[in-house]
Amino acid sequence: MDTCETIRIGDVVLNPRRGRLEDGSGAERDLRAKSFRVLELLIARRGELVTKDDLLRDAWPDVIVSDDSLAQCISDIRRALGPHGAALLRTVPRRGYVLEDEELPAKALPRRTVRQGMVVAMAIVMAGLGWLWLPVEPVATPETPEQAMAASALLAGRDWQRREANEQARMLLEAAVEDDPGDAVAWADLGLTYWLEVQHLAWGGGRREMAQAIEMVERAVALRGTASAHRLLAEMRLLSPFPEMRSPVDALANAQAAVTLAPDEADNLAVLAHVLALTGRGGEAVRHIERAMRFDPTPPDWYRQVAGLSYLVAQEPARAAEAFGPLHGAGTFTGTRWWPGWLLASSLAQSGRTGEAAAIIQAAAGRRPERSIAAVAQSLDGWSDRDSRERFLDGLRRAGLPD
Fold first, then answer.
1. Of 101, 201, 230, 334, which has the fewest beta carbons less than 10 angstroms from its beta carbon?
2. For the domain with range 1-103, which CATH number is right: 3.10.129.10, 1.10.10.10, 3.40.50.720, 3.30.870.10?
3. 113-224: CATH number
4. How do residues 96-148 score in pLDDT, each as one tens digit?
5. Beta bridge partners of 97
6. CA of 286: how far to CAs of 89, 148, 280, 384, in Å?
7. Is 386 exposed, middle or buried (0-12, 13-18, 19+ CB in 10 A)?
8. Where in the chain is the domain with CATH 1.10.10.10?
9. Burial (CB count <10 Å: 0-12, 13-18, 19+), residue 124
10. Secondary structure (3-state) at 333
11. CA distances (Å), 85 to each of 4, 133, 137, 275, 373, in order?
Protein backbone atom coordinates (compact mmCIF):
# COMPACT_ATOMS: atom_id res chain seq x y z
CA MET A 1 0.00 0.00 0.00
CA ASP A 2 1.25 3.48 -0.87
CA THR A 3 1.81 5.21 2.47
CA CYS A 4 1.43 8.69 0.95
CA GLU A 5 -1.83 8.52 -1.02
CA THR A 6 -5.29 8.30 0.48
CA ILE A 7 -7.55 5.41 -0.51
CA ARG A 8 -11.27 5.97 -1.06
CA ILE A 9 -13.75 3.42 0.26
CA GLY A 10 -17.30 4.49 -0.45
CA ASP A 11 -17.83 7.89 1.15
CA VAL A 12 -14.73 7.80 3.36
CA VAL A 13 -11.00 7.73 2.75
CA LEU A 14 -8.19 5.91 4.49
CA ASN A 15 -5.26 8.22 5.18
CA PRO A 16 -2.19 5.96 5.67
CA ARG A 17 0.11 8.86 6.46
CA ARG A 18 -2.05 9.93 9.40
CA GLY A 19 -3.12 6.37 10.21
CA ARG A 20 -6.85 7.01 10.26
CA LEU A 21 -10.17 7.00 8.40
CA GLU A 22 -11.63 10.35 7.41
CA ASP A 23 -14.96 11.50 6.07
CA GLY A 24 -15.44 13.94 3.20
CA SER A 25 -14.64 16.93 5.44
CA GLY A 26 -11.39 15.40 6.72
CA ALA A 27 -12.83 14.62 10.15
CA GLU A 28 -11.67 11.35 11.70
CA ARG A 29 -13.93 8.29 11.77
CA ASP A 30 -13.30 6.32 14.97
CA LEU A 31 -11.66 2.94 14.37
CA ARG A 32 -9.69 0.88 16.86
CA ALA A 33 -6.05 0.16 16.05
CA LYS A 34 -6.62 -3.57 15.48
CA SER A 35 -9.64 -2.91 13.23
CA PHE A 36 -7.58 -0.36 11.30
CA ARG A 37 -4.91 -3.03 10.74
CA VAL A 38 -7.51 -5.49 9.40
CA LEU A 39 -8.78 -2.81 7.03
CA GLU A 40 -5.24 -2.18 5.79
CA LEU A 41 -4.85 -5.90 5.03
CA LEU A 42 -8.11 -5.96 3.10
CA ILE A 43 -7.14 -2.87 1.11
CA ALA A 44 -3.74 -4.37 0.26
CA ARG A 45 -5.59 -7.20 -1.49
CA ARG A 46 -8.62 -5.28 -2.66
CA GLY A 47 -10.89 -7.27 -4.94
CA GLU A 48 -9.46 -10.57 -3.68
CA LEU A 49 -10.69 -13.06 -1.11
CA VAL A 50 -8.64 -12.64 2.07
CA THR A 51 -9.08 -15.72 4.23
CA LYS A 52 -9.79 -15.58 7.93
CA ASP A 53 -6.52 -17.45 8.58
CA ASP A 54 -4.54 -14.81 6.69
CA LEU A 55 -6.20 -11.97 8.58
CA LEU A 56 -5.74 -13.64 11.97
CA ARG A 57 -2.10 -14.43 11.23
CA ASP A 58 -1.18 -10.97 9.97
CA ALA A 59 -3.29 -8.85 12.34
CA TRP A 60 -2.50 -10.84 15.48
CA PRO A 61 1.08 -12.14 14.98
CA ASP A 62 2.26 -14.48 17.75
CA VAL A 63 -1.12 -14.24 19.52
CA ILE A 64 -3.88 -16.86 19.49
CA VAL A 65 -7.33 -15.26 19.20
CA SER A 66 -10.77 -16.52 18.24
CA ASP A 67 -12.65 -15.86 15.00
CA ASP A 68 -14.94 -13.67 17.06
CA SER A 69 -12.17 -11.09 17.53
CA LEU A 70 -11.90 -10.84 13.76
CA ALA A 71 -15.69 -10.69 13.38
CA GLN A 72 -15.80 -7.78 15.81
CA CYS A 73 -13.13 -5.95 13.81
CA ILE A 74 -15.15 -6.47 10.63
CA SER A 75 -18.22 -5.10 12.40
CA ASP A 76 -16.19 -2.07 13.57
CA ILE A 77 -14.95 -1.48 10.02
CA ARG A 78 -18.43 -1.65 8.51
CA ARG A 79 -19.75 0.76 11.12
CA ALA A 80 -16.91 3.21 10.43
CA LEU A 81 -17.29 2.96 6.64
CA GLY A 82 -21.01 3.77 6.70
CA PRO A 83 -23.68 2.19 4.49
CA HIS A 84 -21.96 2.85 1.15
CA GLY A 85 -18.54 1.60 2.20
CA ALA A 86 -19.95 -1.27 4.25
CA ALA A 87 -21.71 -2.61 1.15
CA LEU A 88 -18.26 -3.02 -0.46
CA LEU A 89 -17.00 -5.31 2.32
CA ARG A 90 -18.40 -8.72 1.45
CA THR A 91 -18.46 -11.80 3.65
CA VAL A 92 -17.62 -15.13 2.03
CA PRO A 93 -19.19 -17.61 4.46
CA ARG A 94 -16.73 -19.90 6.28
CA ARG A 95 -13.83 -18.54 4.22
CA GLY A 96 -13.09 -14.85 4.66
CA TYR A 97 -13.80 -11.38 3.30
CA VAL A 98 -13.53 -9.39 0.07
CA LEU A 99 -13.26 -5.61 -0.09
CA GLU A 100 -14.72 -4.89 -3.50
CA ASP A 101 -13.62 -2.10 -5.83
CA GLU A 102 -15.95 0.86 -6.12
CA GLU A 103 -17.42 -0.28 -9.43
CA LEU A 104 -18.15 -3.93 -10.15
CA PRO A 105 -18.36 -4.98 -13.81
CA ALA A 106 -21.89 -5.86 -14.83
CA LYS A 107 -21.03 -9.49 -15.46
CA ALA A 108 -19.79 -9.82 -11.88
CA LEU A 109 -23.15 -8.86 -10.41
CA PRO A 110 -24.93 -12.01 -9.21
CA ARG A 111 -28.50 -12.79 -10.18
CA ARG A 112 -31.00 -11.61 -7.59
CA THR A 113 -33.44 -13.91 -5.94
CA VAL A 114 -37.16 -13.06 -5.91
CA ARG A 115 -36.91 -11.99 -2.26
CA GLN A 116 -33.91 -9.75 -2.98
CA GLY A 117 -35.85 -8.15 -5.80
CA MET A 118 -38.65 -7.36 -3.37
CA VAL A 119 -36.16 -5.76 -0.98
CA VAL A 120 -34.78 -3.59 -3.78
CA ALA A 121 -38.28 -2.55 -4.84
CA MET A 122 -39.16 -1.58 -1.29
CA ALA A 123 -35.88 0.31 -1.00
CA ILE A 124 -36.67 2.33 -4.10
CA VAL A 125 -40.10 3.25 -2.68
CA MET A 126 -38.50 4.36 0.60
CA ALA A 127 -35.90 6.35 -1.29
CA GLY A 128 -38.73 8.31 -2.85
CA LEU A 129 -40.02 9.07 0.64
CA GLY A 130 -36.66 10.61 1.54
CA TRP A 131 -35.53 8.31 4.37
CA LEU A 132 -33.29 5.77 2.69
CA TRP A 133 -29.54 5.81 3.17
CA LEU A 134 -28.75 2.29 1.99
CA PRO A 135 -27.37 1.72 -1.51
CA VAL A 136 -30.24 0.49 -3.68
CA GLU A 137 -28.00 -1.72 -5.81
CA PRO A 138 -27.26 -4.70 -3.53
CA VAL A 139 -24.82 -7.40 -4.57
CA ALA A 140 -26.24 -10.19 -2.44
CA THR A 141 -26.00 -13.86 -3.21
CA PRO A 142 -27.96 -16.66 -1.53
CA GLU A 143 -24.74 -17.63 0.29
CA THR A 144 -23.79 -14.14 1.47
CA PRO A 145 -25.89 -12.37 4.14
CA GLU A 146 -25.78 -8.94 2.51
CA GLN A 147 -29.19 -8.07 3.99
CA ALA A 148 -27.82 -8.60 7.48
CA MET A 149 -24.71 -6.59 6.62
CA ALA A 150 -26.76 -3.66 5.39
CA ALA A 151 -28.96 -3.87 8.50
CA SER A 152 -25.90 -3.74 10.75
CA ALA A 153 -24.87 -0.49 9.08
CA LEU A 154 -28.34 0.93 9.73
CA LEU A 155 -28.16 -0.06 13.40
CA ALA A 156 -24.72 1.45 14.01
CA GLY A 157 -24.83 4.10 16.67
CA ARG A 158 -28.26 3.09 18.03
CA ASP A 159 -29.44 6.63 17.33
CA TRP A 160 -32.80 7.37 19.01
CA GLN A 161 -33.61 9.84 16.22
CA ARG A 162 -33.44 7.13 13.53
CA ARG A 163 -36.48 5.01 14.21
CA GLU A 164 -37.10 4.63 10.46
CA ALA A 165 -33.61 3.17 10.08
CA ASN A 166 -34.39 0.66 12.83
CA GLU A 167 -37.59 -0.40 11.09
CA GLN A 168 -35.79 -0.73 7.79
CA ALA A 169 -33.07 -2.85 9.44
CA ARG A 170 -35.77 -5.08 10.91
CA MET A 171 -37.28 -5.64 7.46
CA LEU A 172 -33.90 -6.69 6.08
CA LEU A 173 -33.14 -8.94 9.04
CA GLU A 174 -36.52 -10.67 8.92
CA ALA A 175 -35.75 -11.52 5.30
CA ALA A 176 -32.28 -12.73 6.27
CA VAL A 177 -33.47 -15.13 8.99
CA GLU A 178 -36.26 -16.42 6.77
CA ASP A 179 -33.66 -17.22 4.10
CA ASP A 180 -31.25 -18.71 6.66
CA PRO A 181 -32.78 -19.61 10.06
CA GLY A 182 -29.30 -20.59 11.27
CA ASP A 183 -27.83 -17.08 10.84
CA ALA A 184 -26.89 -16.27 14.45
CA VAL A 185 -25.65 -12.76 13.66
CA ALA A 186 -28.92 -11.83 11.94
CA TRP A 187 -30.95 -13.18 14.87
CA ALA A 188 -28.89 -11.12 17.33
CA ASP A 189 -29.28 -7.95 15.27
CA LEU A 190 -33.00 -8.60 14.87
CA GLY A 191 -33.24 -8.85 18.65
CA LEU A 192 -31.36 -5.55 18.88
CA THR A 193 -34.04 -3.81 16.79
CA TYR A 194 -36.67 -4.83 19.35
CA TRP A 195 -34.41 -3.89 22.26
CA LEU A 196 -34.01 -0.42 20.79
CA GLU A 197 -37.81 -0.13 20.60
CA VAL A 198 -37.85 -0.63 24.35
CA GLN A 199 -34.70 1.30 25.22
CA HIS A 200 -35.71 4.51 23.42
CA LEU A 201 -38.72 5.73 25.37
CA ALA A 202 -40.11 7.80 22.50
CA TRP A 203 -40.44 4.64 20.38
CA GLY A 204 -42.93 3.12 22.80
CA GLY A 205 -41.73 -0.48 22.99
CA GLY A 206 -43.20 -2.57 25.82
CA ARG A 207 -43.12 -6.03 27.33
CA ARG A 208 -43.92 -7.78 24.07
CA GLU A 209 -40.93 -6.18 22.30
CA MET A 210 -38.69 -6.87 25.29
CA ALA A 211 -39.67 -10.55 25.31
CA GLN A 212 -39.05 -10.79 21.56
CA ALA A 213 -35.64 -9.16 21.93
CA ILE A 214 -34.54 -11.61 24.61
CA GLU A 215 -35.92 -14.63 22.72
CA MET A 216 -34.10 -13.68 19.51
CA VAL A 217 -30.75 -12.99 21.13
CA GLU A 218 -30.99 -16.18 23.19
CA ARG A 219 -31.56 -18.01 19.91
CA ALA A 220 -28.43 -16.37 18.50
CA VAL A 221 -26.44 -17.50 21.54
CA ALA A 222 -27.76 -21.06 21.17
CA LEU A 223 -26.93 -21.16 17.45
CA ARG A 224 -23.46 -19.72 17.81
CA GLY A 225 -22.42 -18.20 21.10
CA THR A 226 -20.43 -15.26 19.80
CA ALA A 227 -19.04 -12.63 22.12
CA SER A 228 -21.26 -9.94 20.60
CA ALA A 229 -24.43 -11.99 21.18
CA HIS A 230 -23.47 -12.72 24.79
CA ARG A 231 -22.65 -9.04 25.28
CA LEU A 232 -26.04 -7.92 23.96
CA LEU A 233 -27.88 -10.46 26.10
CA ALA A 234 -25.96 -9.25 29.17
CA GLU A 235 -27.00 -5.68 28.42
CA MET A 236 -30.67 -6.61 28.08
CA ARG A 237 -30.74 -8.82 31.18
CA LEU A 238 -29.12 -5.99 33.11
CA LEU A 239 -31.13 -2.99 31.90
CA SER A 240 -34.59 -4.29 30.98
CA PRO A 241 -37.19 -1.86 32.35
CA PHE A 242 -39.37 -4.84 33.31
CA PRO A 243 -38.23 -6.42 36.59
CA GLU A 244 -39.41 -9.91 35.68
CA MET A 245 -37.06 -9.87 32.66
CA ARG A 246 -34.01 -8.59 34.55
CA SER A 247 -31.49 -11.04 35.92
CA PRO A 248 -28.19 -9.76 37.34
CA VAL A 249 -26.96 -13.36 37.53
CA ASP A 250 -27.65 -13.99 33.83
CA ALA A 251 -26.25 -10.59 32.92
CA LEU A 252 -22.99 -11.33 34.72
CA ALA A 253 -22.71 -14.83 33.24
CA ASN A 254 -23.18 -13.53 29.69
CA ALA A 255 -20.81 -10.59 30.18
CA GLN A 256 -18.14 -12.96 31.49
CA ALA A 257 -18.75 -15.31 28.53
CA ALA A 258 -18.23 -12.40 26.11
CA VAL A 259 -14.90 -11.53 27.74
CA THR A 260 -13.82 -15.18 27.73
CA LEU A 261 -14.56 -15.48 24.00
CA ALA A 262 -12.89 -12.17 23.04
CA PRO A 263 -10.73 -10.92 25.93
CA ASP A 264 -9.11 -8.14 23.90
CA GLU A 265 -12.42 -6.60 22.76
CA ALA A 266 -12.98 -3.32 24.58
CA ASP A 267 -16.79 -3.41 24.29
CA ASN A 268 -16.91 -6.76 26.12
CA LEU A 269 -14.82 -5.38 28.97
CA ALA A 270 -16.96 -2.25 29.18
CA VAL A 271 -20.21 -4.22 29.39
CA LEU A 272 -18.72 -6.50 32.05
CA ALA A 273 -17.66 -3.40 34.01
CA HIS A 274 -21.21 -2.06 33.70
CA VAL A 275 -22.69 -5.27 35.12
CA LEU A 276 -20.14 -5.35 37.95
CA ALA A 277 -20.78 -1.72 38.86
CA LEU A 278 -24.57 -2.06 39.01
CA THR A 279 -24.22 -5.17 41.16
CA GLY A 280 -21.98 -3.34 43.62
CA ARG A 281 -18.54 -4.66 42.66
CA GLY A 282 -16.97 -1.29 42.04
CA GLY A 283 -13.30 -2.27 42.39
CA GLU A 284 -13.60 -5.02 39.78
CA ALA A 285 -15.62 -2.72 37.53
CA VAL A 286 -12.89 -0.07 37.66
CA ARG A 287 -10.22 -2.58 36.63
CA HIS A 288 -12.22 -3.77 33.63
CA ILE A 289 -13.30 -0.35 32.34
CA GLU A 290 -9.77 1.03 32.70
CA ARG A 291 -8.51 -1.93 30.67
CA ALA A 292 -11.19 -1.28 28.04
CA MET A 293 -10.11 2.34 27.77
CA ARG A 294 -6.49 1.28 27.33
CA PHE A 295 -7.56 -0.90 24.40
CA ASP A 296 -9.51 2.00 22.89
CA PRO A 297 -7.63 5.32 23.24
CA THR A 298 -10.60 7.25 21.79
CA PRO A 299 -13.45 5.64 23.74
CA PRO A 300 -17.11 6.35 22.98
CA ASP A 301 -19.13 8.34 25.49
CA TRP A 302 -20.77 5.27 26.97
CA TYR A 303 -17.35 4.03 28.15
CA ARG A 304 -17.02 7.28 30.10
CA GLN A 305 -20.47 6.71 31.59
CA VAL A 306 -19.49 3.23 32.73
CA ALA A 307 -16.16 4.54 34.04
CA GLY A 308 -17.88 7.26 36.06
CA LEU A 309 -20.43 4.80 37.44
CA SER A 310 -17.64 2.37 38.36
CA TYR A 311 -15.70 5.05 40.24
CA LEU A 312 -18.87 6.18 42.00
CA VAL A 313 -19.69 2.64 43.15
CA ALA A 314 -16.05 2.20 44.22
CA GLN A 315 -16.53 5.33 46.39
CA GLU A 316 -14.19 7.51 44.35
CA PRO A 317 -16.61 10.40 43.58
CA ALA A 318 -13.90 12.85 42.47
CA ARG A 319 -12.73 10.45 39.76
CA ALA A 320 -16.36 9.79 38.85
CA ALA A 321 -16.98 13.51 38.37
CA GLU A 322 -13.86 13.72 36.21
CA ALA A 323 -15.17 10.91 33.99
CA PHE A 324 -18.68 12.37 33.70
CA GLY A 325 -17.52 15.96 33.24
CA PRO A 326 -16.81 15.80 29.47
CA LEU A 327 -20.35 14.45 28.94
CA HIS A 328 -21.96 17.48 30.57
CA GLY A 329 -23.91 19.65 28.16
CA ALA A 330 -26.19 18.57 25.35
CA GLY A 331 -25.73 14.88 26.15
CA THR A 332 -26.10 15.15 29.92
CA PHE A 333 -29.80 14.29 29.85
CA THR A 334 -31.02 12.33 26.84
CA GLY A 335 -34.19 10.55 25.80
CA THR A 336 -32.98 7.11 26.85
CA ARG A 337 -33.17 5.36 30.20
CA TRP A 338 -29.57 6.14 31.05
CA TRP A 339 -28.84 9.66 32.34
CA PRO A 340 -25.22 10.60 33.16
CA GLY A 341 -26.45 13.99 34.33
CA TRP A 342 -27.87 12.55 37.56
CA LEU A 343 -24.64 10.61 38.11
CA LEU A 344 -22.52 13.71 37.53
CA ALA A 345 -24.59 15.73 40.02
CA SER A 346 -24.29 13.02 42.67
CA SER A 347 -20.54 12.64 42.06
CA LEU A 348 -19.97 16.37 42.45
CA ALA A 349 -22.05 16.51 45.63
CA GLN A 350 -20.25 13.53 47.16
CA SER A 351 -16.88 15.11 46.40
CA GLY A 352 -17.87 18.36 48.12
CA ARG A 353 -18.75 20.42 45.01
CA THR A 354 -22.37 20.97 46.01
CA GLY A 355 -22.75 24.30 44.21
CA GLU A 356 -21.89 22.75 40.85
CA ALA A 357 -24.14 19.78 41.64
CA ALA A 358 -27.04 22.07 42.49
CA ALA A 359 -26.65 23.91 39.17
CA ILE A 360 -27.05 20.63 37.29
CA ILE A 361 -30.16 19.76 39.31
CA GLN A 362 -31.66 23.16 38.55
CA ALA A 363 -30.93 22.77 34.82
CA ALA A 364 -32.57 19.34 34.86
CA ALA A 365 -35.75 20.79 36.35
CA GLY A 366 -36.61 22.39 33.02
CA ARG A 367 -35.68 19.39 30.89
CA ARG A 368 -36.52 16.19 32.76
CA PRO A 369 -39.83 14.78 33.97
CA GLU A 370 -38.15 13.45 37.16
CA ARG A 371 -38.56 16.10 39.87
CA SER A 372 -37.81 14.03 42.97
CA ILE A 373 -35.50 11.38 44.41
CA ALA A 374 -38.33 8.84 44.14
CA ALA A 375 -38.80 9.57 40.44
CA VAL A 376 -35.09 9.18 39.70
CA ALA A 377 -34.95 5.97 41.76
CA GLN A 378 -37.82 4.52 39.73
CA SER A 379 -35.82 5.00 36.52
CA LEU A 380 -32.72 3.14 37.72
CA ASP A 381 -33.33 -0.08 35.80
CA GLY A 382 -30.75 -2.70 36.64
CA TRP A 383 -29.03 -1.04 39.62
CA SER A 384 -29.45 -4.02 41.94
CA ASP A 385 -26.88 -3.14 44.63
CA ARG A 386 -28.82 -1.33 47.32
CA ASP A 387 -25.89 0.27 49.19
CA SER A 388 -24.26 1.98 46.20
CA ARG A 389 -27.64 2.98 44.85
CA GLU A 390 -28.56 4.69 48.12
CA ARG A 391 -25.21 6.52 48.19
CA PHE A 392 -25.96 7.80 44.69
CA LEU A 393 -29.43 9.01 45.69
CA ASP A 394 -28.06 10.61 48.85
CA GLY A 395 -25.68 12.62 46.64
CA LEU A 396 -28.71 13.98 44.75
CA ARG A 397 -30.30 14.96 48.06
CA ARG A 398 -27.18 16.94 48.95
CA ALA A 399 -27.43 18.64 45.57
CA GLY A 400 -30.96 19.80 46.41
CA LEU A 401 -33.24 17.27 44.69
CA PRO A 402 -36.28 16.80 46.98
CA ASP A 403 -37.51 13.43 48.19
1. 101
2. 1.10.10.10
3. 1.25.40.10
4. 888 887 643 333 333 333 334 333 333 323 333 333 222 223 333 333 356 66
5. 50, 91
6. 36, 35, 11, 18
7. exposed
8. 1-103
9. exposed
10. coil
11. 21, 12, 13, 34, 47
User: Cα(213)–Cα(197) distance, rounded to whole angstroms?
Assistant: 9
Q: What is the mean pLDDT of residues 57-86?
A: 77
State pTM to two decimals. 0.61
Question: Radius of gyration over alpha carbons of the chain, in Å?
Answer: 22
Sort 106 into a burial class: Cβ within 10 Å, 0-12 / 13-18 / 19+.
Answer: exposed
pLDDT by residue (tens digit) across 148-191?
A: 667 777 676 666 677 888 888 888 888 888 878 888 888 998 99
3-state helix, strand and coil shares in percent for the chain, rounded to the nearest 5: 60, 5, 35
Residues of the chain with CATH 1.25.40.10: 113-224
Distance CA 101, CA 346 (A): 52
